């Protein structure tokens, strides 16, 4: 049981990360990561939808026949997105306005329907919730990394607009890291998102390659100890 | 020099008789007339940018090559990094802050050229991609071309120019805006920029062209700069480094479209000859669009490629938000190259298509 859980955690956060490896949900990922707080808002919303939709789908999976599963999944996801949307409209109105169309568009986020189809429809409720949580955290982490990097490069600030998410007290959270005479607009514009995303994926591949290399080396050194002749 | 044509795609291969290094060096030499004219009209800034850009280009190339574990010295000696730095230095405003040049050149070399695999593999023209990154990132710095030197209130010495580029202020403490002031204390935009603004204020073309920033054939400075690049381009043609298809296609299409627009449209078109001798048309036609890596490789394709660039420049100047659009036009045409090449493969002797 624990080995399986560990696998789910590792899958969501790293080896099968929805943003870095599956490359799902790129549209909101690239569109709203111009600031850290926007990224955090969308990340949390996606995370919540992922967890509850995975849980619900795994609970109802035995009554959903194969032929109608996609409409049912989408309806479940859409209901939760509507709930999240109404909650954001009520409690974080500023963020609701600044994320705009990308909140309702969570319905079409392939990362969510992908997990429903690939995992929740085949596994029990506990594993499915855990999978949703880990996939959501993995997705949010990349959103935050990209959002933070673009905000720092683009406007020289971090946590700008925190009051939109946390309320008026958070106005002071904004950190000015650099003072620019002129903003680096490329980082804030869509091309900056694509380039930044490409660099993050490249970084992940470098880390993976380094680790694979290490493994091979470890194995090799053991082999050498055993083999006495060189052929 | 017909062997330079890509008609001979498969064996037997003709030898070009010129190494990459020699070609790049020739192109660098051919920019000399334009470079000197730019120095004369726009001051020492271009020289400072030249040193800065080439330095950063070579350094970034060396760093990436060492990361990729390639032979640094051998690859650097092909001169392509130097040329990219040179072309970018000639394109950006002479008094642009140093970090603008550094970001542009580093982006051009590291991301546009080396991340795609180095010389010969890049899809886009590195210098122009770097230029576009700068233009959309720092629109203010990238459009602050000073008026020509004889019209300026303050002209800068070489040391003063370097001071402005690295600190933003001259030694006496003038900022860029004050330095751009004319003798009479007013400021003036670049010819293409001014043309758009004045049109919006309901002025006629002949009224606009009588302003002191316009010469007989284009911008008062840029007409000579363009003529100098035309001269350099003709030298490249004569040496067989570039072929006539792309420059001719580009210039002809820009010219013809402007003639049609001036003849048929309302009085809102920058006149045809002036189009060719303002902005960076000649520089673009002979030095940028002819990049052997990112341009089309078939003879017919090159004409289409050039004509596409000319048409895009016309459209951007006529209807676009930016005053000039050579860099955008070249990048958009670069994207079409695989398609153009696919449909313009020459017939192989003895084969039916």
TrEMBL record, chain A:
Q: Which GO terms describe its cellular component?
A: endomembrane system; plasma membrane
Its main subcellular localisation, reduced to a broad class, is membrane
Q: What is its EC number?
A: 7.-.-.-
The subcellular localization recorded is: Cell inner membrane; Endomembrane system
The record gives the membrane topology as: Multi-pass membrane protein
Query: Does the keyword Membrane belong to this entry?
Result: yes
Question: Which segment of the chain is annotated as a signal peptide?
Answer: none
Which terms are listed as keywords in the entry?
Cell inner membrane, Cell membrane, Electron transport, Membrane, Translocase, Transmembrane, Transmembrane helix, Transport
Its family remark reads: Belongs to the NqrDE/RnfAE family.
User: Origin organism of this chain?
Assistant: Psychrosphaera haliotis
A Gene Ontology BP annotation from the UniProt entry: electron transport chain
**What domain of life is recorded for the organism?**
Bacteria
Protein name in the entry = Ion-translocating oxidoreductase complex subunit E
Which InterPro entries does the UniProt entry name for this protein? Answer: NqrDE/RnfAE, RnfE
Question: Which HAMAP family does the entry link to?
Answer: RsxE_RnfE
Query: Does Cell inner membrane show up as a keyword for this record?
Result: yes
- Task performed by this protein: Part of a membrane-bound complex that couples electron transfer with translocation of ions across the membrane.
User: Where, by residue number, does the polypeptide cross the bilayer?
Assistant: 36-56, 68-87, 93-112, 132-149, 184-207
Q: How does it assemble?
A: The complex is composed of six subunits: RnfA, RnfB, RnfC, RnfD, RnfE and RnfG.
Automatic annotation (TrEMBL), chain B:
User: What NCBIfam families does its record include?
Assistant: PRK00816.1 (NF002011), rnfD (TIGR01946)
List the source organism: Psychrosphaera haliotis
For this entry, the protein name equals Ion-translocating oxidoreductase complex subunit D
Under the heading Pfam families, the entry gives: NQR2_RnfD_RnfE
**A GO cellular component entry from the record:** plasma membrane
InterPro entries assigned to the protein according to its UniProt record, in alphabetical order: NqrB/RnfD, RnfD_bac
Keyword tags: Cell inner membrane, Cell membrane, Electron transport, Flavoprotein, FMN, Membrane, Phosphoprotein, Translocase, Transmembrane, Transmembrane helix, Transport
Query: Which topology term describes how it sits in the membrane?
Result: Multi-pass membrane protein
TM spans, by residue? 47-68, 75-92, 98-116, 128-148, 217-237, 244-266, 272-290, 302-320, 326-344
GO biological process per UniProt = electron transport chain; transmembrane transport
User: Could you tell me what this protein does?
Assistant: Part of a membrane-bound complex that couples electron transfer with translocation of ions across the membrane.
**EC number(s) per entry:** 7.-.-.-
User: Into which family does the record put it?
Assistant: Belongs to the NqrB/RnfD family.
Top enzyme class, one word, equals translocase
The chain residues annotated with the modification FMN phosphoryl threonine are: 190
Cofactor(s) for this protein? FMN
Known partners and oligomeric status = The complex is composed of six subunits: RnfA, RnfB, RnfC, RnfD, RnfE and RnfG.
Entry's localization field: Cell inner membrane
């Amino acid at each position: 049981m624990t080995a399986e859980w560990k696998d789910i955690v590792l899958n969501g956060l790293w080896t099968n990360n929805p943003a870095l490896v599956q490359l799902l949900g790129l549209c909101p990922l690239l569109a709203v990561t111009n600031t850290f707080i926007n990224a955090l808002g969308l990340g949390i919303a996606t995370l919540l939808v992922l967890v509850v939709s995975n849980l619900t789908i795994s609970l109802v999976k035995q009554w959903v026949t194969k032929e109608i599963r996609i409409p049912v999944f989408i309806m479940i996801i859409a209901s939760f997105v509507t709930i999240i949307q109404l909650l954001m409209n009520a409690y974080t109105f500023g963020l609701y306005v600044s994320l705009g169309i990308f909140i309702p568009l969570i319905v079409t986020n392939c990362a969510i329907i992908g997990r429903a189809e690939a995992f929740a429809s085949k596994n029990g409720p506990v594993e499915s919730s855990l999978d949703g949580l880990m996939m959501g955290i993995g997705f949010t982490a990349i959103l935050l990394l990209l959002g933070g990097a673009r905000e720092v490069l683009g406007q020289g600030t971090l946590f700008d607009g925190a009051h939109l998410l946390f309320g008026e007290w958070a106005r002071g959270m904004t950190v000015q890291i650099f003072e620019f005479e002129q903003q680096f607009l490329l980082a804030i514009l869509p091309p900056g998102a694509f380039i930044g995303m490409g660099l993050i994926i490249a970084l992940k591949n470098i880390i993976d390659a380094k680790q694979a290399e290490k493994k091979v080396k470890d194995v090799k050194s053991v082999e050498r100890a055993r083999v006495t002749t060189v052929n | 020099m017909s062997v330079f044509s890509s008609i001979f795609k498969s064996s037997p291969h003709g030898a070009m008789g010129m190494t990459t290094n020699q070609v790049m060096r020739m192109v660098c030499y051919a920019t000399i007339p334009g470079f000197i004219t730019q120095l004369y009209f726009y001051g020492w800034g271009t020289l400072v940018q030249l040193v800065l850009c080439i330095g950063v280009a070579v350094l970034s190339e060396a760093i990436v090559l060492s990361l990729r574990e390639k032979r640094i010295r051998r690859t650097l000696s092909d001169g392509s990094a130097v040329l990219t730095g040179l072309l970018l230095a000639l394109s950006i405003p002479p008094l642009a802050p140093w970090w603008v040049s550094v970001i542009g050149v580093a982006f051009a070399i590291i991301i546009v050229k080396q991340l795609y695999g180095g010389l010969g593999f890049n899809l886009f023209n590195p210098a122009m991609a770097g230029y576009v990154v700068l233009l959309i990132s720092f629109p203010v710095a990238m459009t602050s071309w000073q008026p020509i030197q004889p019209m300026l209130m303050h002209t800068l010495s070489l040391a003063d120019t370097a001071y402005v580029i690295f600190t933003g202020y001259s030694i006496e403490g003038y900022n860029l805006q004050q330095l751009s002031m004319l003798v009479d204390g007013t400021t003036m935009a670049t010819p293409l920029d001014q043309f758009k603004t004045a049109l919006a204020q309901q002025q006629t073309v002949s009224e606009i062209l009588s302003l002191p920033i316009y010469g007989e054939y284009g911008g008062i400075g840029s007409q000579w700069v363009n003529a100098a690049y035309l001269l350099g381009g003709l030298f490249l043609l004569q040496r067989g480094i570039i072929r006539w298809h792309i420059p001719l296609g580009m210039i002809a299409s820009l010219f013809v479209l402007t003639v049609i627009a001036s003849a048929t449209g309302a009085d809102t078109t920058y006149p045809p000859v002036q189009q060719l001798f303002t902005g960076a048309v000649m520089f673009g036609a002979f030095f940028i669009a002819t990049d052997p890596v990112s341009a089309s490789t078939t003879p017919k394709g090159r004409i289409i490629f050039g004509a596409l660039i000319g048409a895009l420049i016309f459209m951007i100047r006529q209807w676009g938000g930016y005053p000039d659009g050579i860099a955008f036009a070249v990048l958009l045409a670069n994207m079409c190259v695989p398609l153009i090449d696919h449909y313009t493969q020459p017939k192989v002797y003895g084969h039916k298509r």
